[in-house]
Specification:
The protein is of the alpha+beta class. Helices cover 50% and strands 19% of the residues. Strands 3-2-1-4 form a four-stranded mixed β-sheet. Helix 1 (30-46) runs antiparallel to helix 2 and helix 4 (99-121) packs across helix 5. The radius of gyration is 17 Å and the shape is globular.
Length: 147
């Protein structure tokens, strides 16, 4: 079984006018997930990070940030992880669509790119993504069920 862990961009400085919207997914074979997770935890421990996002801290030297990035890339490559993403820019976002429409459009695109190779290979997959704002969650649950 293939696993996909998806996450959207953090809140941008101006929530009223987004300059982009991105959902990125990390896909890994289920048999590799625990070993890969342990390796990523090891990287966090070696550098004293609470999470891998902390590697972007400005307090770390460029050499250390590059070393962390290289170690993450090596671990992902060794376990044949794949990254799929969609980025919507300011033109796509200028239509003032509701956030749930933007989110579902982007997620549908991402899920298609994840599912097509699985279907060709007769495989199964599981998608996990982080929580969203409660006001958005109900509508997204309904749309995911319909999807």
């Amino acid at each position: 079984m293939r696993l996909l862990f998806a996450d959207e961009t953090d809140r941008q400085a101006s929530a009223a006018k987004r300059s982009f919207f991105c959902i990125c997914g990390l896909s890994v074979d289920g048999a590799e997930a625990v070993v890969l997770s342990n390796e990523l935890e090891g990287i966090k421990s070696r550098y004293g990070l609470a999470n891998l996002k902390e590697a972007r801290k400005t307090g770390l030297s460029e050499d250390i940030r590059l070393a962390i990035t290289n170690e993450i890339q090596a671990a992902l490559s060794a376990h044949k992880a794949k990254i799929i993403a969609i980025v919507l820019g300011d033109i796509s976002l200028s239509y003032l669509s509701p956030l749930e429409d933007i989110y579902m459009g982007a997620m549908s695109f991402l899920l298609e790119r994840f599912a097509l190779p699985l279907m060709r290979g007769g495989e199964f997959g599981l998608v996990t993504f982080d929580s969203v704002d409660k006001s958005l969650e109900k509508e997204l649950r309904k749309r995911f069920y319909e999807y």
